[in-house]
Specification:
The chain is α/β, with parallel strands linked by helices. It has 13 helices and 16 strands. It has an 8-stranded mixed sheet with strand order 5-4-6-1-7-10-2-11, with helices on both faces. A 4-stranded antiparallel sheet has the order 13-14-15-16, with helices on one face. A hairpin with a 5-residue loop joins strand 8 and strand 9. Helix 6 runs parallel beside helix 9.
Length: 425
């Protein structure tokens, strides 16, 4: 990219696995618009999220750090985000989403001039309770893509002419419970199912996966695919609106996902805290305004996004583990020597913290697990059976994190209610 973009737009999609998009080989027409964008811009066909769930994946995506450096032990933001970097450079910054795990309750509003996490009543308990009751009545668990688009475009329209900005839109629609609008539901599912029944099926799949029949599994996939089709359509509409405003050609646009979802693979539904391939393979499309159309097979990661943005804007900062995905005169030289990427996920059970690390590329995947209890680290997996690269990386991350104090984090009733509706609790 020879000239710096006027603005930067990061579009992330929650729970979108790459292999449910046509441009990544899916045989259903879930993503006609993303497919077209992939064909006409830079598509990374071997792209991975750094984690399998939002609490670790999005902080890493926004900070360019591995999850254990991006947040503290309570998953509060613990590293500067790209918004902070760009705000310091004079950019106006905004974020629009409705995932409670990356809300102001966890410190993610830092660095944003405008931060709409759809929990704007959360500081007033009585009003929040009324909003929660209304949301339950409306069966509304998150802001739809149409709402996110409307709010973010309204913010853009409030800016002065030629104002440089950074915008982050995070779309929740492919995240469960899968309740697509009827016009999209009919594309892939010819049997009527109510939102209430779909939500009940989704929750049962998480709690009791063995009870899900082949027909019920297909119903969940049909509903999920319909949500993808809806999101695909609204991303196209958002980009069209940017184009109408004369903003698209001069902007850097990055489209990706924080993780995928499982449909019975490995005995799970939703997105458990294991860095399985199906959960960490995500789309990555970059529109740089350069007219370059290319498909890149070298393995890349969502922690490459922050270095990519900083490089495109000619901003230098402290070293980050990722690399820029902006090509130079020599092509994609910074990533051409890569052979794999690393992913991680952590969870607490039986008063112990389990840290899982995976190494992955197009043809290989392996995982190692460690148990951290009372300050002691025990190998839960036989490290002799994993590669030296994976074991060395995992031990390095464990050693860096040891000694960090856990911090308490109290969330509001509104946040907890949203998390329960989304299947987190």
């Amino acid at each position: 990219m020879t000239d710096s973009p006027q603005s930067v737009i990061l579009l992330s999609i929650d729970a979108l696995r790459a292999d449910h998009l046509g441009c990544y080989g899916y045989d259903r027409d879930t993503s006609p618009n993303l497919d077209m964008l992939a064909e006409n811009n830079i598509q990374f066909t071997n792209s991975y999220s750094v984690s399998s769930h939002t609490r670790e994946a999005v902080p890493a995506l926004l900070s360019g750090q591995y999850p254990d450096s991006a947040t503290d032990e309570s998953y509060r933001r613990d590293a500067p985000t790209i918004a902070s970097h760009l705000q310091g450079e004079g950019y106006l910054t905004a974020g629009f989403h409705s995932n409670p795990y990356v809300s102001r309750a966890f410190g993610f509003d830092d660095g944003f001039d405008k931060f709409d996490d759809d929990l704007h009543l959360g500081k007033h308990k009585l009003i929040a309770l009324a909003q929660r009751a209304l949301d339950k009545l409306r069966n509304r668990h998150y802001a739809r893509a149409s709402e996110v688009n409307e709010r973010s475009l309204s913010w853009i329209d409030s800016l002065g002419k030629d104002q440089q900005f950074f915008l982050w839109n995070h779309y929740m629609d492919p995240h469960g419970p899968y309740e697509p609008l009827e016009e999209y539901r009919e594309i892939f599912h010819d049997v009527s199912i109510s939102d209430k029944a779909a939500q009940k099926l989704y929750k049962r799949a998480i709690k009791n996966p063995d009870s899900i029949t082949a027909e019920e599994r297909q119903t969940l996939i049909n509903l999920y695919d319909a949500e993808i089709r809806y999101t695909d359509q609204h991303i196209r509409r958002f980009l069209d609106e940017l184009d109408k405003r004369g903003l698209l050609a001069d902007s850097l646009v990055i489209i990706t996902a924080d993780h995928g979802d499982l449909f019975g693979e490995h005995g799970y539904y939703e997105h458990p805290r294991y860095p399985f391939r199906e959960l960490v393979e995500v789309p990555m499309i970059i529109m740089s305004g350069s007219g370059l159309s290319e498909s890149i097979e070298d393995p890349v990661s969502t922690i490459d996004i922050v270095p990519t943005i900083l490089d495109a804007l000619n901003i230098r900062t402290n070293s980050l583990p990722g690399s820029t995905l902006i090509p130079t005169a020599d092509g994609f030289s910074e990533i051409e020597s890569r052979t794999h990427q690393y992913c991680q996920a952590s969870t607490t059970k039986s008063n112990s913290l389990y840290r899982r690390f995976a190494i992955i590329n197009e043809s290989e995947w392996e995982m190692v697990e460690f148990e951290v209890s009372d300050g002691e680290v025990a190998e839960s997996s036989d490290h002799s059976e994993v590669s030296d690269d994976l074991y060395s990386h995992a031990r390095d991350r464990i050693d860096k994190r040891m000694g960090t104090e856990s911090q308490n984090n109290e969330t509001t009733d509104e946040v907890n209610s949203r998390l329960e509706a989304l299947g987190y609790k």
